[in-house]
């Protein structure tokens, strides 16, 4: 499995959202946009239920770590969630699969990780970047680091335990660090 990357250009982030909506659906673009704003692993993102959203917070137990997460939602995430809720008042999941609606007597299911992964890879190929389901977390971490230069803050957001892991995860290379030393003269 090829390593996926953070999207370092904000224009490319918007282009990816546009292409996902145009080539797939608004729902797939919403996965991308909410994923960028919540920095969750894809399994946790797709498993969000409307009952997990309490006003301006998302409360869930992370699947990988089994730790409780309480994430304050920003206005963009709130707006998207509110729109989806209005459009799909009977849905259980934020990103509910429409396939199960057609099947009689089957419980609701979220979109599959495989479907989202394929959509992201397809759009990534179109824009020339290795894009995958982890790209949303990596992109959020990368842009937070670039804005703050506070690796501890990024580690906390991503719930990592090592600076080295976090720097590698968000795609900060020695070249980036060297550039920061050259550009900042005191």
Automatic annotation (TrEMBL):
The Gene Ontology biological process terms listed for this entry are:
DNA integration; DNA recombination
- Keywords (A to Z) from UniProt: DNA integration, DNA recombination
> GO molecular function, one example?
DNA binding
Q: Which residues cross the membrane?
A: none
Q: Where is the Tyr recombinase domain?
A: 5-182
Indicate what this protein is called per its UniProt record.
Phage integrase family protein
Mention any Pfam family matching this sequence: Phage_integrase
